[in-house]
Amino acid sequence: MLISLEWLNEYIDLKDLSSQKIAETLTDLGLEVEGIETLAPLPESLVVGQIIDMHPHPDANSLNICTVDIGNKEEPLTIVCGAPNARKGLHTPVATIGTVLPGDFKIKPSKIRGQSSYGMMCSQKELQVSNEDAGLWEISSKYKPGTKISEIIDTSDTIFELSITPNRADCLSYIGIARDLGAKLLRPIKHPKLDYEANDTVKTGQKIKASIGPKAGCGRLTALCVEGVKAVPSPIWMQKRIEKSGIRPINLIVDITNYVLLEYGQPIHAYDERFVSGGMIEVRSAKVQDKLTTLDGQDAILKDGDILICDSEKPIGLAGIMGGLNSEIKEDSSAIIIEVAHFSPTQIRRTSKRLGYHTDASHRFERGINIDTLPNIAKRVGNLLFSVSQELGLPSPKISEDLIDIYPEPKNKTRIALRLSRAKQILGLPKLTIPACCDHLDALGFDLLDKNDDRMVFEAPFWRHDIIREIDLIEEIARLEGYNNIPYSMPVMEITPSREMPFLHFAENAKVAMASLGMSEIITFPFVSENESKKLGISIDHPLYPSLKLSNPISEEYDSLQTTLLLGLLNAVSTNRKQGQKGSRLFEIGRGYFDFSAKSFDKVKYEKFSQYTRPSEHFSAKAREEKNRPTERQLIAGIIDFPLVAGNWLRQEQNPDFFTIKELIYAFLKSIGINSKKITLERPDVTAFPFFHPGASATLTFGGDILGWMGELHPRVAVDFGFHSQQIPIIFELDLNQLFSASMEKLTINTQSSKYPPVNRDIALLVEKSISHKDFDKSFNSFKKRKFMKNYKLFDVYEGDKIAADKRSFAYTLSFQSMDKTLTDKEVDKEMQLLLEWLNEAIGATQR
Amino acid sequence: MIHPNVFEAIQYDSENISGFAFGFGIDRMAMLADALPDLRQLFEGDKEFHAQFPVYV
Q: CB A576 to CB B47 under 8 A?
């Protein structure tokens, strides 16, 4: 709700308060001020001028050269002007040299087609006084030349943007806001005038018939007939006021209904009587065959229960939401019917939501209006129609004295008891008294019915639909006493140390470890789109294909919960690249969400994802027992972008590769206490890991547990995410829950080390191409006659012309050491011989 | 203050039990601590932005 301070001052005098103070008071009252806008007055150098002489421009048909009197102290100005209504004798605003008009437009002496011009005569639009731009602003001749325009119209104002909570429908109005401010600041509020000079020739009761149909959803219907009004533009002050509150000015009749809407928060509709057949206004429930085109030109598709306003033949309005096009106020409208009604909030909400209408009227009807005051609203419209017509010098409209008021079941006020002791206890205000409570509630419009030492009985005013029980009265007292005035003291309580959360500590350590390895932590949203998931090359049967959909997603595309953090990381790196940032090293700790009850997967093909099916550790026992619950896994994932090392005069730009990520992961595992000797790397299956480069990736297992995977992104996937095929990032994703379990395993420390020197031997071994280092690994470890061999290290792999085409050569450095002596060549030779025999037997290796 | 309706919904005696409810977003605190003009910066993953923060805060 936009509130103009200039207008608000009509109902409560706040002229002595700064806008800051008013904003604070409003916010303290629970009417939160979200923004304050200050509007400047018109410049002082903008004055009334009178055209005293005018002749055509010699070189332009549409221009005139005017001599303009701007008051007795100044010489008349010569101004070239093209406005169609420029004429001798006209009073109009003149922006003199040096004036800065709205839009930062500075007036300078100029030459227009060879003729000098010393100022500018202005339209209302050029001064942003209204949207009127047909010609110069014609100012009443009662203002002498030289009068400052800012004295005629004060455009300075402060606009408060209020965020009104749905329970305070009464504050969607100037009077509602003034009432709350008056109660808080102990100031009286001024109510608008309701009187007008009635005309005997127009009688609402004789001219029209009004009725409310059965179960129509209308609590009260009031109507007033007026004749002889003119739909001219309303006065500038009125246009400005409704515009500042966010409503577009249209014509006098519509503007007055909107003006009163803003004053009281009560929507009003005006019908052109010519188009209301049979002089009948009936509120009834819609039938499917009913047809109505609303004011905005849309055909409303109606349903049973929608509330319609109808004449004797047809619907003329969608009640509480928008009027019908067929009975709209037109330029030549003269006889009108003013309708003020109460409609069922739930029904209005249902209809407006279904049809997608959200109007100033529906907004207020949905939240509840003041049913008690409807006749006064109609009278206020009569008052303004009468007084504004007079102000504009129009013939007085003929306004009926009587009005139709149908109120089948008058509402009673809600009666609520309030205990002083309870208010003191809830608010912590020991000094609160009965008179203070009564004063506060009285100022807010509550009626005191009865009181004794502790108990008061109040009736809530009709406009406060939110006051239902005692606690609501206590809240009112708190608002007026001021939440800031409630004394505070620290509660005395026992502090018990929080429960140990080993996993949280572990996750924290993991973050620190990752960050210490040069990675930056990021946080992304856990929402993913199916389309982006498909870019990973996974199909709907894959365990990483999103399986949990949000029923109310923030964005239509990102409507699923993530199963992997990789999408967020890839998008982050891709965004960085677009901003010219290469070489990102990012990681994230987050959750993957899986629902395998809805979608099972092939346990053999996707065995590396079996850890995701483990039930989550729920706090609630009930949740733990429930089968087929979706699961959550804590994940840690990261990405290293190209280049790993920026190029300079000493070295070339370097790509990150599989070994970069392997080194990082091993260092990371070490920092979080996982024995990397127990880790096995396996080449991932292409169908299970289509997003990895098949030759530069690996899955990690610890004992039998799957920890995760790492490697180079598949070039096709990289390109789909917008990367260059030669600048591919590397990624990893590990299951933090699995890492936590692995970190629990105690490390065994070898305390014995030999005092004697090791003997190293290099050896090259020829094997079939199908044999890998992993097979050598196994064979070395299963070498039964091993006595002194301590370790082995692969230092070369060779394939090529020097050996048979189906063979491959692996070269190892073997080291031999004894705990109690220096080994002799003979001893080493002997063990080498046994090892060669064993390798030949196990994997067919021969010495090269 | 917690509305008595909430207590009644879980069969607590709202005459004898009252309580406070409060909450504060940790991202808001980060905003204050580091004078961030816009909360969304924390979720955009901008490399230059994140790389400025030390390992231990």
A: yes
